[in-house]
Each structure stands twice: as structure tokens, then as C-alpha cells.
Design a protein that fits this description.
5 strands, 78 residues, five-stranded antiparallel β-sheet, alpha+beta, 2 helices
């Protein structure tokens, strides 16, 4: 679902398995970037509480479902 959404919005999606970030371990991190940008616009992961979306320049957002998270991100496109 996320890959299809990213393709539709001309974003590049990367999956990092077994990632470690700021001392935290994640099974899987999804990064969404515009074009050839090396810096992701959003990073996403599943926590025990739900789907976490970390925008590059903002606070993390928590969602119950990935479909709701993607709906919120659409208007955020620059």
C-alpha cells in the first residue's frame, strides 16, 4: 500500500531492516523522499502503540492505521 502511494505521488520509498536510530532499534523503517534527495521527507515505523510518522522538520505523529497516516501526508507535499 505504501509503495503504491509513494509511486502515485512521485516519491521514492526505501525500507531499512534492523535499523538503529538514536539508540532505538526498529525491525523496519520506511523512508519517503522526493526525487533524488538523500534526506527523507518522512520516516515511518510501527510501534506498540501504532504507526509513527516522523517528518523531517516536525514532531512525530501517531496513527492507528497506515491508510490514515497517508491521507494526512498528502496535503503536506511541498
Amino acid at each position: 500500500m505504501v509503495q503504491a502511494w509513494a509511486d502515485y505521488h512521485n516519491l521514492r520509498m526505501e525500507i531499512e531492516l534492523g535499523a538503529v536510530s538514536e539508540g532505538e532499534e526498529f525491525e523496519e523503517l520506511l523512508s519517503l523522499s522526493y526525487g533524488a534527495s538523500e534526506h527523507p521527507r518522512w520516516t515511518m515505523w510501527r510501534s506498540a502503540d501504532g504507526i509513527v510518522v516522523q517528518p523531517t522538520m516536525s514532531r512525530p505523529m501517531m496513527f492507528d492505521r497506515m491508510s490514515v497516516a497517508l491521507e494526512v501526508l498528502i496535503p503536506a507535499r511541498d
